[in-house]
Amino acid sequence: MDTKTIFLPALAMAVLTCAVWLRLFYVRIGQMKRDRIHPQSVATSAQAVAKLTESRAADNFRNLFELPVLFYLALVVAALNGLADTATLTLAWLFVALRIAHSAIQCGYNKVMHRFYAYAAGGLALWLLWARIGVGLLT
User: What keyword terms does UniProt attach to this protein (predicted)?
Assistant: First the structure.
């Protein structure tokens, strides 16, 4: 397998993160214009929480810097140790697909149990990815 291939899921996650970031700006600026919120009045997170009522995109953007950090590291570890095979790549793409689903749910209709299932399944895919890499490193 070409070494670059294992980083395509990372590229997809970066695109997802950028899309959520753009959504965050669109929603925040829209609310600030609509509600006439002065930027200085939301200078701290406490002030922002009190005035900016639409937080789905912001919440999701923060989520994209939690478990995905371990995902990015897993891809680097796999690439550096010759563990970037079909199974590893499949688990990586599964994680990406589930994170896309999670983001779509959270930034969209935000049904908590649907979002939880996508999150939990993505977490499981990530832990399986790490288990596969761990076995490869230890054998």
Answer: Membrane, Transmembrane, Transmembrane helix
- Nearest in space to 12 (alpha carbons), one of 70, 76, 69, 92: 92
Q: Are 132 and 77 in contact (CB under 8 A)?
A: no
CA nearest 27: which of 63, 61, 65? Answer: 61
Is 3-138 assigned to CATH 1.10.443.10? no
By the 8 A CB rule, do 98 and 122 touch? yes
Q: Give me the DSSP letters along 65-91.
A: TSHHHHHHHHHHHHHHTT---HHHHHH
pLDDT tens-digit series, residues 86-102:
999 999 999 999 999 99
User: Above 80 in pLDDT, residue 1?
Assistant: no
Domain boundaries, the chain: 3-138
For 35-55, how does the pLDDT look when each residue is reduced to its tens digit (9 = 90+)? 999 999 999 989 998 999 999
